[in-house]
Write a structure and sequence with these properties.
The chain is an alpha/beta fold and 389 residues long. It has helices at 2-9, 19-51, 54-80, 95-123, 132-159, 162-191, 196-223, 229-240, 275-293, 309-325, 359-373, and strands at 245-255, 261-270, 295-304, 330-338, 343-350, 377-384. The chain has a 3-stranded mixed β-sheet, with helices on one face.
């Protein structure tokens, strides 16, 4: 059913990497949210005024803020769909993340305002009525919000959109909040206790929790987060499937919005390999990564010594000594230069952020360990940090 509707509304809807297709998904989600939330706002506002229930009135304005959130979603997707220009050579894709962040902030604002109104109602309770009209409106609202949550989540999964996922969380939160309002009014009617304010406060806490979660999900890609391990593994498999590449490191992925990613990585190749052949292979890998993952790749070639017994022995020795400091430490770009008095061991060590030692401590400890093995060994160490999980 959903597929049939989307095919009618969105031409070429399966090509979700196309910015224009993503924009149309956002338009469909935004317009749907605007219309339904405005209808729910009107119904709940009338019901809240009739019943005198602050929780119902607050829930109505929650729906009004949802309509505003849908406008933000609509505008965000339209702006994100704009093509790259001279001032924004990487496109406008991050506008989608900003739209999701604004939606999250609106959720938090509603939670704060609802909490303030509910607290005042606790201090100054008033009699509330659960009329048949109010009950019907609230039940219909719950069903509509559950459907909206499903609809937004389905579209969010299709185009991997944090904005739509945030909207889906908001809709499900609204359904729970409205259900709590309905239960609170029914309990007040049966027990004659002033529960309206307490129910409103509980709903406010739930909305705030949802808002914080949605904000984190949209902030992470804006701040720059580590890529998914599954993506890292898939990229590594593609690169290492070519026999000319013996290892990779320093993989960095830059996210400029859904479908707009760039990456850089260092590929280790044999120092004595045919440079023209290796260059051709690297070009082929970059095109393959673009075709398979829709990602612009830049690959730096690192020549390393292979098949030299002395280099292999010292590389393995250094690897073991680094693991003694912390098992998470790894080395790469290892090479040696030998002289009459010293053998320089030149390499990079990757220090993950969770390692307790500082960069300088790692360099000092590793230098001391190599010096203890032989006074001839002089370490020249560069510290890297891992950008992947």
């Amino acid at each position: 059913m959903l597929n049939a509707i989307l095919h009618k509304l969105i031409p070429n809807c399966d090509n979700t990497e196309d910015p224009e297709v993503r924009r149309r998904y956002g338009v469909v989600a935004g317009l749907t949210g605007i219309v339904l939330n405005l209808l729910l706002f009107a119904g709940k506002l009338i019901s809240g005024l009739i019943s005198g229930a602050i929780s119902v009135t607050a829930d109505a304005f929650n729906n009004l803020s949802d309509a505003a959130s849908s406008v933000v979603t609509l505008v965000g997707f339209r702006m994100a769909g704009q093509k790259a220009d001279a001032d924004h050579p990487f496109g406008h894709g991050r506008m989608e993340y900003l739209a999701g962040l604004i939606v999250s902030l609106l959720i938090l604002l509603v939670g704060v305002e609802l909490g303030k109104s509910s607290f005042e109602k606790i201090l100054h309770p008033e009699e509330t009525l659960l009329t048949p009209l109010t009950a019907v409106i609230l039940v219909v609202s719950i069903l509509v919000k559950l459907w909206m949550g499903w609809f937004q989540a389905a579209l969010g999964r299709r185009i991997s959109s944090e904005t739509l996922r945030a909207a889906s969380v908001d809709s499900r939160s609204d359904a729970v909040a409205t259900a709590a309002v309905l239960v609170g009014l029914a309990a007040s009617l049966l027990t004659h206790l002033p529960l309206d304010g307490w129910v409103g406060l509980l709903v406010a806490v739930f909305i705030l929790k949802s808002g914080f979660g949605a904000a984190k999900a949209t902030l992470d890609p804006l701040l720059g987060q580590a890529p998914e391990p599954s993506m890292v593994k898939a990229i590594e498999d593609v690169i290492l499937s070519h026999r000319q590449v013996v290892g990779i490191h320093d993989l960095v992925i830059h996210d400029y919005g859904p479908g707009r990613r760039m990456m850089s990585v260092h590929a280790e190749v044999a120092a004595d390999a045919d440079i023209l052949e290796v260059h051709d292979v690297i070009d082929h890998i970059e095109r393959e990564l673009n075709r398979r993952f829709h990602i612009e790749a830049v690959i730096h070639m690192d020549p390393i010594q292979i098949g030299n017994p002395e280099v292999d022995r010292l590389r393995e020795l250094t690897r073991k000594l680094a693991a003694e400091i912390d098992p998470a430490l790894t080395i790469h770009d290892f090479r040696i230069t030998s002289g009459p008095l010293h053998t320089n061991l030149i390499f990079d060590v990757v220090v993950p952020y969770e390692v307790k030692h500082s960069d300088e401590e790692v360099k000092t400890l590793l230098t001391q360990k190599l010096g203890a093995v032989s006074s001839r060994y002089h370490a020249v160490i560069h510290v890297d940090h891992s950008y992947v999980l």
